């Protein structure tokens, strides 16, 4: 079977560290000679891993953009990679770094510098998912037909992703991490506001300037660990628990205690081993003590652990090898429009798809949600779509979409559709017929999205037969 290889980059700008990886993704047509082509990413190989760099900051509230750019440029040069050879990938900004004043500017500027289709991504749930995939939790879950929770415990946040037989079930994030208390010259140099509140609720005396007392900071880490236990359903949630959630108004309840658990992130190596525990403040923070507290948790130890494929590099590996999907074989598009970036998802619900009339009306109404100063903005219209539709159904669907999106088309904006079922080629052909004399649409399928997501669609690969697609969030806190 013919294979095509594309090059992907992952760049992770985290609370403590910044890393870069380059990966080769192999695309192959998995169909027989007597069926419709079916393209899949069949292999993912990391071809270059950068060093682990301290994330450069100008101040406690601002990232040093120029220093980050020099760092990334240096890694491209060391890898011998030209940005124009990059087909896909992502710049992700994670943990406390996503809260810096210039986080949005940094991640978007870097994505433009790193390649033509390197996307900007942020948000705690996305971080949890790509870290879980980078750690191999999804693969382990699928291969062993079980539930696996991956906790990515970093410098500023702990991101939980639950997989059931390879499928993502849910994700959440807590403001718990090794850099939330920093130590310099034997003194407490920084205490994050939420950790100060946690200490107050637990009756722990801790403030900046105090001597870095191991016993006191162990108590802080044990209190953090109890919050992690609560998120896993191992203990009742305390009154303080909602405060520690990164998105305080969004609680996540796991359907059941997971059968297996893995840990990734910068703290993970201290969870799996005490080999580096001799100096509790070796990183200038409480990461070693937090890892120790998690390692000693009787509740967490009741869940069988497995060693992840990656620990500190899980997020950057996930960004470079797991963030891209492909849509191919049944797609229709105008290549001149690509790549398209940061299209918000306009998601139709089952009631919206009940009839062509309902669909047309729903698209028209929901497009108004995305209007800026009275003018509609580019979006991607997402829906399930019928399975094995008749010719008449396809024609009616195309007419409903074009009619509902009249304000979009009238502004000369691209008409982009994302269907879950494999109908994009016939739908695109029908849309082309319904838009005589006009060009400007992209129809992709076999991609699942939700309201609140964004989608990026890259330039054609594999001889034009597939399009790289990234579904993401853009949440800067």
What is the topological layout?
Elements: E1 3-13, E2 17-29, E3 39-49, E4 53-54, E5 57-59, E6 62-63, H1 65-79, E7 88-93, H2 103-114, E8 119-122, H3 124-135, H4 137-143, E9 147-153, E10 158-164, E11 167-174, E12 181-184, E13 187-191, H5 193-202, H6 214-231, H7 241-244, E14 260-264, H8 268-272, H9 287-295, H10 298-301, E15 304-305, H11 314-321, E16 324-328, E17 332-333, E18 340-347, H12 356-367, E19 371-372, E20 375-376, E21 380-383, H13 391-404, H14 406-410, E22 415-419, H15 424-434, E23 441-445, E24 454-457, E25 466-472
Parallel strand pairs: 1-7, 7-8, 9-14, 14-15, 18-21, 21-22, 22-23
Antiparallel strand pairs: 1-2, 2-3, 2-4, 5-6, 9-10, 10-11, 12-13, 16-25, 17-23, 18-24, 19-20, 24-25
Helix pairs in contact: 1-2, 3-11, 6-9, 12-13, 13-15
Tell me what you see in this structure.
With 477 residues, the protein is an alpha/beta fold. The protein folds into three domains: 120 residues, 2-Layer Sandwich (Nucleotidyltransferase, domain 5), CATH 3.30.420; 172 residues, 2-Layer Sandwich (Nucleotidyltransferase, domain 5); 115 residues, no CATH class. Helices cover 31% and strands 28% of the residues. The chain contains 15 helices and 25 strands. Strands 16-25-24-18-21-22-23-17 form an eight-stranded mixed beta sheet. Helix 1 packs parallel to helix 2, helix 6 packs across helix 9 and helix 13 crosses helix 15.
